[in-house]
TrEMBL record:
UniProt organism field: Galdieria sulphuraria
Catalytic activity: acetate + ATP + CoA = acetyl-CoA + AMP + diphosphate
Pfam name, any one: AMP-binding
One GO biological process term: acetyl-CoA biosynthetic process from acetate
The protein's Enzyme Commission number: 6.2.1.1
Protein name in UniProt: Acetyl-coenzyme A synthetase
Keywords (A to Z) from UniProt: ATP-binding, Ligase, Nucleotide-binding
Protein family: Belongs to the ATP-dependent AMP-binding enzyme family.
Acetyl-coenzyme A synthetase N-terminal domain boundaries: 68-127
Domain AMP-dependent synthetase/ligase intervals: 134-530
Amino acid sequence: QHKCQRKRWFKRRLTFGRVRPLQLYSCTNLQETSQELQSGGDRSYPVPREYFDRVTNHHINNIEQYMLLYNHSILQPDEFWSDKAKQVLSWKQLWDDQICSFNFDVEKGPIFCEWFKGGKLNACYNCIDRHVEAGHGDQVAYYAEGNEESADIRGYTYRELLDYIERLASVLKARGVHKGDVVAIYMPNIPELVIAMLACARIGAIHSVVFGGFSAESLANRLLDAKSRVVITCDGYKRGEKIVPLKTVADAAAELARETLGYNLVEHKIIYQRLNSKEHTATMDGHVDEWWHEALSKAEKHCAIEWMDAEDPLFVLYTSGSTGRPKGIVHTTGGYLLYAALTHRYAFNYHPGDVYFCTADCGWITGHSYVVYGPLVNRATQVIFEGVPTYPSADRLWKISAKYKVKQLYTAPTLIRSLMRFGEKYVKNSQRDSLTLLATVGEPINPEAWKWFSREVGENLCPIVDTWWQTETGGHMILPPPVQGFYQKPGSASIPFFGIVPVVVNEKGEELFGECEGYLCIKKPWPGMFRTVLGDHSRMESTYFKPFRGYYMSGDGCRRDKDGYYWLTGRVDDVINVSGHRIGTAEVESALIAHGSVAEAAVVPAPHDIKGQGIYAYVTLREGEEPTEELRKALKHAVREHIGAICTPDVIHWAPALPKTRSGKIMRRILRKIAELGTNVTPNDLGDTSTLSDPQVVDMLVSLYGK
Ligand code: WTA
C-alpha cells in the first residue's frame, strides 16, 4: 500500500500554488522604526554603506532584487532550482523530468522528499576535479593554520588536494570499501579530514564524521549504528596545551564495538600522523592499523569517479535529539551540494579569490556545509584552523584574519562572547582591514555580542550575517542578506533564503499570520533537506513531521515581527544548546545514571554568560550514598568519559527527590526555573506546583540551590 501511495505522490509536481509571496516591510517604514527605537528595543541598522564602497562585486544588488529572486524561487521553484542546479553544479547527466517530489503529510503516506532524481553527479568532482580541469589547479583551496602559531603559510592547492584524495580513495577501494559503505572519520580539523571526506565521496562511500572531542563510547555507538568497518583517524593532536590521544580513543571504541557484537566490526584503521614521534604513543596493530603516509605512498595514483544519483547518500552526521541516542542525519548528493553552495555564495557574497574563514570544526554540520562542500563547489580559498581561539592568546582569530587577509569571517556567538571577556585590546592590536563581512551561527546572537562584533571587530563597516539553520536543513534557512537597502536587526536571523517557506504555528499546528509567536516550521521542501534518519525512517517521521501535520518541525520557538523578521527564541524540546552544540538531556541523564551511586537524574538548561546555555543536573543519590565534592567531580568525569567534554555538567544540584506529577512525570518546567534562581528569578516565580505529588520537594530543592 505504501508503495502505491508513494507513487501517487511521486507523480505530483512540486507546486507552491498556495504559498504567499514574501511580504516584506517597506524600507521607509523600517527607517522610521529605527529612529523611534533608538533608545533600546529592536533597533534596525542598514547594511553599512561602506560595505558597498569596499566591495564592488555583488551577486545580488539590492533588497528589491533579493525579493524578486525569492518570490521566483517559491512561486516557480521548478524553474528556479533547475536554473541554479545547472549554473552551480556540473552534472554527468541531468535529472529526469521531475525537479522535486515529496510528501510532508503523515496521513497521506510515508514522508519523503527527492530532488533532481535520476541526475548523475559526483560531489568530489564538483568540489575539486572540475576546478583543476578548468585550469585552477594552482589556486590555494586551504591555508592550514595549525594549533601552534607560526609565521609560515602552509597552503594546499586544488591540484594537491586532488592528488591526495585520489590516492586515499584508491586505498579505501583496495581495502574493500564499496559504494554505499559508511566510513567513519575521527580527526582534528585539518585538511586531511577534508581529504578523507572527499575520498569517500569520490568512490560513493558515505562518510560519518565524528567530532574529535567525543568519547570512545560515543564513537563506538556511531560505528555500530552505521556498521562502519573502516575508520580514518590520526595518532593524536594538540589542542591548546593539551595532547588528545585520538588513536587510543579510536582503539577503545573499536574494542567496545567488538564486545557489543561479539566480533570485530572495525577491520581497517588508517592513521594520519599528526604528532611527532616523541609526542605520540599510538601502538599499531599490524592486522588492522596502517599509517596514512605509508598507504598513500604505495597507492594507485588515480582513482575513477563513481557517478552517483542525485538522491544517493553523501554523508551521515549524528545529532542529538530530545530522546534516545543521537540520530544519524542522512544527506544526499545533488540537493545538498547545490544548497550548501548557493547559500555560501549568497549569504557571504562569496567570489573566487576572496579568502574566507569559517571557524567551525568539520565534526559539525557547519564544517560540512561551510568548510567543505559549499566553499569548494564555489572554488573558494579558505583558512582551516585546527586550534582554539584563545591559544596562545585571545587575539588568535584576529591574527589569523590579518595573516591571510581574510575577507569573510564566519563564527559563533559563544566565541564572540568568550573573546569579549578579554576586552577590546586584543582586537585592537590586530590589523583587520581585510574583513568585509562577519557572520555567525549556532544560537541566537544576543544584541550586545552583535554590537560588539560589529563595532570592535568590524569597525562598523561590515554586515553581520546571523544564519539560522540546523544539521537537518543542510544549509542556511533564515538570514539577513548582505544587500543594499536591507535593514539588519541585532538578534534577529531576519528573512528566509531562496526557496524557504517558514511558518509559525501554534500548539494545535495552526498557521499564524502577521506578527506572532509559536513554533517554527517549514512548509515546503528545499534541496538541502535531510532525507532520513539512518536505519530508522519512522524516527524521522515521528520527530519532525508528526508534531504538526504537513510541516517540518524545527524544534525551535520563534517570533515574527511586524516587518516579517524572524526572531529565534531557543529550543522547545529537551535539547540544550551549549556553545552552539546540541546536547540531548536524555543522553546526559543516562550517563549520570550509569554511575553506580545515582538513583535518578534530571538535566535542564541554565543560562550561561559565555556558552549561552549550560548543563544543570539534578541528581538523586542511592540510599547510603553521601553527596560529597569528590562524588560531584566523579559524576562530571563520568559524563565526560561517556559522551565527551562538551557535555560535562556545569552544576550538579543534589536532589533528595525530584518534583513529579501524580502520574510520575518529572516537572522539568519547575526544574528549569530553579536552575535560573541565580538570575532574576525568585522562588515566587516557580509557578503552579499544586499538581505535584509532593509540593514540598520544591522547597527542599530551593533550599539546596548553590549547595
Ligand atoms: C540553534 C547548527 C538562533 C537552533 C547549524 C537550531 C540558532 C540548532 C542559530 C541547530 C541562529 C543555530 N539563531 N538559533 N542563528 N543557529 N541555532 O544542528 O536551536 O548543530 O535548532 O546546527 O541551533 O543546531 P545544529
